[in-house]
Design a protein that fits this description.
503 residues, alpha/beta, Leucine Aminopeptidase, subunit E, domain 1, nine-stranded mixed sheet, 18 strands, elongated, binds ligand BES, binds magnesium ion, binds zinc ion
Amino acid sequence: MLKIQVTDKKITDQKTSCYAFLISEGAATPSDLKAFQKLFGIDIGQYLLKHEFTGKLLETFSLPVFLKNKMHHVIIVGLGKPGKDKKIDIEQYRRAVAHLYKQVAAHKAASFALTVPSARLFGVDVQDLGQQTAIATEMAAYHFDEYITAKDRKAYVVKDLTLCVSSKEKTALQRGVKDGDIIAQAVNKARRWINLPPVKLTPVELADKARAIAKKTGLKFTALNEKQIIAKGMGGLAAVGAGSDQESTMVILEYHTKKKNAPTIAFVGKGITFDSGGLSLKPAKSMETMKEDMSGAAAVITTMEALAQLKPDVNVIGVAPLAENLPSGKATKPGDIITFYNGKTAEVKNTDAEGRLILADALSYTAKQFKPDAMIDIATLTGACAYALGPFFTGLMSQDDELVSELEDAAERTGDRVWRLPLHDDYKLAVKSNVADLCNIGSPKYMAGTITAAHFLKAFVGDTPWAHLDIAGTAFDVPDMPYFRTGATGTGVRLLIDLAMNW
Ligand code: BES
Ligand code: MG
Ligand code: ZN
């Protein structure tokens, strides 16, 4: 694991295997690089000129240097151009440092040192910059290789990063790094759970992980077993897990702030540990990555673990309905009608539209039991969302403009991006059934499968301010991002933590 230290000594005083520099496009040679050149008598500027290095985002330049007969590396990464406001987008910084980490690892350097650029350059404060530095580098360092046995195929792990900063800014940066470390560990834990093969992470096993987290951090933990789920009238969750030999369960984690009269927010995450589609079986290709269908639940549980340590001034409830969606002689059939926790009924026309069935129970249960001031669900809900927005934006649907702007602000700060789709009432009739209150798939005339799915969920939130996040496109296999790799991204974790911390 990457350990990050903060020092007020100069980069030229560091003992490290790699000296790293970030250069923005069109800027003069940074002073730390100048000092480095002077001390070691190397004219890196000449090399940069020769190689026409301009500082474009992710542009990379490296050379070995011999100091007292020992080899070190110098790695320089471009930060890109400032915008019209003369500031560099903090997302460019996140990508540049993440890319830098991967370059250091590619050079098999055990440690690297970096002078932290001025926070003003990005329009953030020093603590934020420390937080983003830790998050981006630790996310870049994560790799799911625990099932690879060939040693030469394991990811090279960089052990130490030293951040050099002025003595004035040291404490603030350190504070940011400490919080960033908590957030990054939550993101990477979610990624690991999602990446685990579905045989290794069943609903009960995921619930056990949540229980262990609660025990360690002091969160309140409740789990409903299948019998209790049925007894409470949660017909949706019961129906989805019916075909599987694995028990369904519903996990509830509670964080209570010491602050008096604090508001309460609730996060609800879809936890299908494997989605075969059920009797409405998916084609083989579409099933290949369906271990990712518990990404919402993973995001909620790891967010709760981070919040237990970061201690926001708001009560937070995390709810995760967990089940496995498989066909069998006991499986729910197209044509079945189920009754949910709030008494509403739905005709199941397609057993592959199962996410909304488990969320319907979880949302109505959370609204009734906790009466939260706001409720946000997060789910790999519709393939349509991945087609609409691709892998870079999570679909956001809500009729509450204030909640939308809170989420958009959190997305802007964290880089965990969202894009609003219109949850207009005109789409509502799409999920009406002739034989029950609702139908679990939208009528084809309305198309817009992501929005009609959200309308199904809306029938279960009552008057609670609510927003829905569809992460079907963003949860898994996002290309080109320096802080991701193939597999799970941990999308939603940074977003939800930030939302709670700034509530
Ligand atoms: N888990 C899928 C959605 C999904 C698709 C997530 C691709 C990630 C990547 C969900 O349960 C599902 O199967 N949805 C159906 C709904 C349809 C039957 C109305 C879909 O999107 O096809
Ligand atoms: Mg079962
Ligand atoms: Zn499905």
